[in-house]
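Task: complex structure prediction.
Instruction: return structure tokens for all chains below.
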Amino acid sequence: MATITTISESVGANRIVPTVAIPYPVGNPNLNTADEYNLRKDMVGRALKGLATEIEETTQF
Amino acid sequence: MYKILYYVNQFFGQIGGEDKAGIEPEFHQKSIGPAMGFGVQVKGQAEVIGTLICGDNYFNENREAALEYIMNVIKEQKPDMVVAGPAFNAGRYGMACAGVTVAVQEQLGLPVLTGMYEENPGVDACKTKVYVVKTGNSAAAMKDALPVMGKLALKLLKGEEIGKPAEEGYLPQGRRLTVIADERGSKRAVDMLVARLYDKPFETELPMPVFDRVTPAAAIKDLSKATIALVTTGGIVPHGNPDRIQSASAQKWGKYDVSKIDELKGDYYTIHGGYDPVYANEKPDRVAPLDLLKEYEKEGVIGKVFEYFYTTTGTGTAVGNSIKFGTEIGKELKEAGVDGVILTST
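Output:
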């Protein structure tokens, strides 16, 4: 889970979840509590889905 | 007349093949194998005064003993330069050429030169320190490699200015030097763009990094039975930073027991020196989402969150250290039977 996904790719990460911003990759303090929670839950859910998905090449989830 | 000492392995030293790879180093006061061809290239200005031969296995398995013998011969023979290889794509030979040239340059201050195929593992062991002439991947490329090595060797011996990698035929060393350009940057950039549009050759001034390729791991078959570990380079540590992990250019990583907590908030903060810490300190789970992994565990989506959380600082951290940390953490997780890892980076 990273914001600058090109760096993730350059070091060979294969399953990548693009995140929000460098100081708060898995969060967004500009949102209200409920919206931030939903966003975060969705992102971590996508990361888990990525781990359970067969891939042939670098893939963003 | 400059004096050059030459280093080769058992094969190029004409002792034997793989069955002789265990031979100890030996010295002969004559040119053997590639040393002869190299001597032709520098004829009249330099001569090869002898050839060191060492088995590739012996060098790599008894590095200290091999280097001790080799360095002693070099000190006795007093050459002006040491040339090793070329090793082409032979990995152990490449590592030996790297070991010899780096040791000679660092300990004796003599100019050194070797040659390798760019994917030889020996390249990474020495290219930032010594000149490595770029060769083909097999000994068939010998006749192309030796003239380039001979020319560069003479320049090094005479202390002449060494041109760019592509001009001199050596592998880039990762150095940035100030040069005076004829045209200003904007014009060079537009010229490059125009050349590209016309399908004409052009040379970038900022080559893109080479991407690491890793074969994707197989998917987790059943998430609901899987153990998932959380790892971050975001510098999230327990309050007080008990292991004193550096806030930049990390020298180490830490692991902390998170089996009894539901979120990092409260007990953790960030010591990362490369981003505004306000949001992470409010809620460290914004960097390493332990709270949500625990939720997914409670919901039965995943089997278990691994009991330890792993962390380091990813700003200014040397690639070499990063590889080391990753290898060490990966080994622990694998041995612990972890099925999947979520790595977050800032």
